[in-house]
Amino acid sequence: MINAIHGRPVEIRPDYITILTPGGVEYRLEVTRNTSERISAIPQEERENIRVFAYLQHREDAMTLFGFYSEEERFCFEQLQTVPGIGARQALRILSGITVAALIKALDAQDVKTLAKVPGVGQKTAQKLILQLKNVLVLEEEETGSAETSDGMVPLQEYRDMIDSFAAMGHDRRIVVRTLSEVIKENEEKLRSSDYRTLEPVIFSIMLKRLSK
């Protein structure tokens, strides 16, 4: 699996970019308009070794490499394809017409009208998006934030796999994130004396009991 491409952009178009790696290999990546604009905004002196997150689509007749400025946009791209009737091209078109933050806010508010205006969506697809993704996608700051303790902050991003697991069980992602923050704060003494990764099974067990009530 190709996770990311490091290199210098030698061509930037609204729907694709070409990256030249230090090894001399050029990769063409299909991108959203948002990613294209964000890469275009990088000053020339800072473009020598940018990182573009990748998604490789392997089909019988072709292999296509998609690129994203952030992991959050790539995650949304992947999740959009879980909705019946939405493929990679349509997912890319959707994310070219709306930012990740705006998409998630619309899903959370069940705003069919806003979603239906996005190119490649429409009324029926907007309803399907809300039905399938409302509790799957959350705003970046919620999940990549931190849980406050008396000694500082514990990053919730480190527990993303756990958050994903509970979301897959059917729990509301926002409630999972909120509960995790509370559990971390309640167990700050243990976290102070041990690496939080070693306590992950304990925290998972506490979370399971609390969310099952």
Structural class: alpha+beta
Query: Mind summarizing the main beta sheet?
Result: 5 strands, mixed, barrel
Strand arrangement in the largest pleated sheet: 1-2-3-5-4
Number of strands: 7
- Rounded mean pLDDT is 82
User: What is the overall shape?
Assistant: globular
Q: Roughly how many Å is the radius of gyration?
A: 19 Å
Helix content: 40-55%
- Compute the separation of the termini in Å: 39 Å
Strand content: 15-25%
| Separate helix tally | 11
> H/E element string?
EEEHEEHHHHHHEEHHHH
Low-confidence runs (pLDDT<50, min 5 residues)? 140-155
Report on the architecture of this protein.
GO terms for molecular function: ATP binding; four-way junction DNA binding; four-way junction helicase activity; hydrolase activity. One of its GO terms (biological process) is DNA recombination. The protein is built from eleven helices and seven strands. It is α+β, with helices and mostly antiparallel strands and 213 residues long. Strands 1-2-3-5-4 form a five-stranded mixed beta barrel. It has a two-stranded antiparallel ribbon with strand order 6-7. A hairpin with a 2-residue loop joins strand 6 and strand 7 (152-155). Helix 2 (71-80) crosses helix 3 (88-97) and helix 8 (160-168) packs across helix 9.
Please name the defining characteristics of this protein.
213 residues; alpha+beta; two-stranded antiparallel sheet; globular; four-way junction helicase activity; DNA recombination; NA-bd_OB-fold; Holliday junction branch migration complex subunit RuvA; cytoplasm
